[in-house]
């Protein structure tokens, strides 16, 4: 009798465990993706990155000019 | 001008830009595993973690250039070493700050006194000390020699502090203290495809910034030497 009851109990527990769906119910930002707002986030990030890039590239060009000037200054008689 | 030629090449800078664009766009768009507690913040893997990889690599290159300076005596090598260390420290500060932001949302507090967090903070303080030491010396040759030796010693100390010590004790961070590393999550699936390019992209970007800083400092130094024809310059501290 005890065995039967414990067996049924275990079965109920096992079946209720199956009741959890494999797709977890963890919330993700699917709403942001579905209404397209994620692209706003990406646009913001790209804008910041573009500003950084512009700075780096302008520094590169400035440096190239100054290095050339300095090389001429060093190699030519003063 | 004895600046290293690799610093002037453009191809790896274009590569840096492309990889960073990929990291930003795909980091936000690509599918990530839906994990409890983390939710979408798992995307921080592409931005927070590369800060630490970047820091370790930048400081390694700094140590390499310090060794180069001690072997060759070329002042440029010491300037480049200091620039790498500067950017490494910058990456480290960004890593700690973004880590605190992420910690607040994941674990409820900005700072846990978790071994990895504390070890990272100690590592940063070590390199702040490098710059204090560097700027305390006025004679440029002495500054270069002492900084180079200090840089080498600090890096050899830094690596065990941040890699070995956290693994010896309990820790909240993945990969330490008995927690499964991110490998146990889904890093072997989609996330790796964005994570590896992210690490390379951020490292290349840091290297590019380092070359800008180095070349500026070298020009400043050369300009002062050629203007004053003296070997001692006390004006520009690096």
Question: How would you portray this structure in words?
Answer:
The complex is a heterodimer of chains A (78) and B (238). With 78 residues, chain A is mainly alpha-helical. Chain A is 77% helix and 0% strand. The mean pLDDT of chain A is 78. Chain B has one domain. In chain B, 71% of the residues lie in helices and 0% in strands. In chain B, helix 2 runs parallel beside helix 6 (187-228), helix 3 (75-107) packs antiparallel against helix 4 (115-136) and helix 3 runs parallel beside helix 5. Chain B is globular, with a radius of gyration of 20 Å. Chain B starts with 10 loop residues before the first helix and ends in a 10-residue tail after the last helix. Chain A binds chain B through residues 24, 26-29, 38, 41-42, 45-46, 49, 53, 56, 59-60, 63-64, 66-67, 70-71, 73-74, 78, and chain B through 1, 3, 8, 13, 17, 20-21, 24-25, 28-29, 32, 34-36, 39-40, 208-209, 212, 215-216, 219, 222-223, 226.
What's the topology here?
The complex is a heterodimer of chains A (78) and B (238).
Chain A: H1 2-18, H2 30-34, H3 38-75
Chain B: H1 11-29, H2 49-72, H3 75-107, H4 115-136, H5 140-168, H6 187-228
Helix pairs in contact in B: 1-6, 2-3, 2-5, 2-6, 3-4, 3-5, 3-6, 4-5
């Amino acid at each position: 009798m005890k065995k039967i009851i414990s067996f049924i109990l275990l079965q109920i527990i096992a079946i209720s465990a199956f009741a959890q769906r494999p797709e977890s119910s963890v919330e993700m930002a699917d709403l942001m993706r579905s209404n397209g707002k994620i692209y706003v986030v990406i646009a913001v990030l790209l804008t910041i990155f573009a500003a950084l890039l512009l700075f780096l590239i302008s520094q590169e060009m400035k440096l190239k000019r100054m290095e050339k000037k300095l090389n001429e200054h060093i190699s030519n008689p003063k | 001008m004895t600046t290293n030629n690799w610093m002037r090449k453009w191809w790896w800078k274009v590569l840096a830009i492309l990889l960073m664009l990929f990291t930003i766009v795909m980091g936000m768009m690509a599918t990530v595993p839906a994990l409890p507690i983390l939710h979408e913040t798992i995307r921080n893997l592409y931005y927070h973690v590369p800060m630490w990889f970047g820091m370790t690599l930048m400081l390694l290159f700094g140590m390499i250039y310090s060794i180069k300076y001690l072997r060759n005596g070329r002042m440029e090598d010491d300037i480049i070493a200091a620039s790498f260390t500067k950017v490494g420290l910058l990456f480290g500060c960004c890593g700690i700050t973004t880590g605190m932001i992420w910690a607040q949302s994941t674990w409820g507090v900005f700072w846990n006194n978790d071994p990895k967090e504390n070890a990272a903070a100690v590592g940063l303080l070590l390199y702040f000390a490098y710059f204090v030491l560097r700027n305390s010396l006025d004679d440029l040759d002495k500054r270069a020699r002492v900084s180079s030796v200090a840089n080498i010693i600090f890096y050899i100390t830094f690596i065990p502090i941040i890699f070995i010590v956290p693994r010896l004790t309990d820790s909240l961070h993945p990969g330490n203290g008995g927690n499964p590393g991110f490998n146990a999550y889904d890093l072997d699936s989609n996330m790796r495809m964005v994570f590896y390019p992210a690490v390379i992209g951020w490292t290349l970007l840091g290297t590019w910034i380092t070359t800008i800083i180095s070349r500026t400092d070298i020009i400043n130094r050369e300009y002062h030497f050629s203007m004053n024809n003296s070997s001692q310059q006390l004006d520009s501290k690096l």
